[in-house]
Amino acid sequence: MPIINYRTREVNCKIVYVGPSLGGKTTNIQNIHQIIPDVNKTKLSSINTEGDRTLFFDYFSLDLDDIAGFKTKFLVYGVPGQPYYRSTRKMVLNGVDGLVFVADSDKSRMADNIESLEDTKSMLKEYGYDYQTMPMVFQYNKRDLFFITPVAEFDEVINDRKCKSFEAVAIENKGVVETFRAVCGEVVHKLTQQLAQQYGGSSSFR
Ligand SMILES: Nc1nc2c(ncn2[C@@H]2O[C@H](COP(=O)(O)OP(=O)(O)O)[C@@H](O)[C@H]2O)c(=O)[nH]1
Ligand SMILES: [Mg+2]
């Protein structure tokens, strides 16, 4: 549930990019950050090692127009994918409102995709979050590679919830904005439902 401040009429929605290490999470976040106009975003903080790997997490926030009279802010995070950094990943997932699972299409990485998805599910469970109802989209990244996992196999094996999915080449900025827009849409959809419930089913909150 997004953090709602009724006094200031502000809502914070936390979106987290998860997936196997080197799948393209940071590339997605960097590109989205570049595209968004300067006026309504914070600086992108990334702490990377030499190998361009996220050590801690990637983070920026952006302000959106009002939703139902509430000033809405999206906090965008990318976790480190390496199995070793589980505790950092878990910390970043605390309070998550929407997930993007960035899968690596490189055929040789299917086991890593599966392991990462299972790891994500188990961490959500530890927090008491319901994987089945969490706003989520899937991105099948690195479609430019030669030996890739077919979309049908991803749909079957990875996208078990049948969420929206997008093919992407994050380094060429293909599918990046579409993925981000979709997860924001899912989060806003759930948020408006929750606000409507809290306001006794009214569709107007002003
Ligand atoms: N060929 C190819 N490489 C990509 C793509 N997206 C990201 N990469 C590369 O994959 C590596 C890991 O990307 P990064 O965004 O750091 O992955 P993260 O560990 O998930 O944050 C980098 O060298 C990227 O340039 C893509 O669509 N195609
Ligand atoms: Mg990274």
Question: Gist?
Answer:
This protein has about 210 residues and is of the alpha/beta class. It has helices at about 25-35, 85-95, 110-125, 150-155, 175-200, and strands spanning about 5, 10-20, 60-65, 70-80, 100-105, 135-140, 165. Helix content is about 35%, strand content about 25%.
Describe the structure.
By secondary structure, this protein is an alpha/beta fold. The relative contact order is 0.19. The model is unreliable at about 200-205 (pLDDT under 50). It has helices at about 25-35, 85-95, 110-125, 150-155, 175-200; strands at about 5, 10-20, 60-65, 70-80, 100-105, 135-140, 165. Strands 1, 2, 3, 4, 5, 6 and 7 form a seven-stranded mixed β-sheet that branches. The chain has a single domain (about 5-200), classed as Rossmann fold, CATH 3.40.50. A hairpin with a 4-residue loop joins strand 1 (about 5) and strand 2. It contains five helices and seven strands, in the order E-E-H-E-E-H-E-H-E-H-E-H. The structure holds guanosine-5'-diphosphate (GDP) and magnesium ion. Guanosine-5'-diphosphate binds near residues 22, 24 and 81.
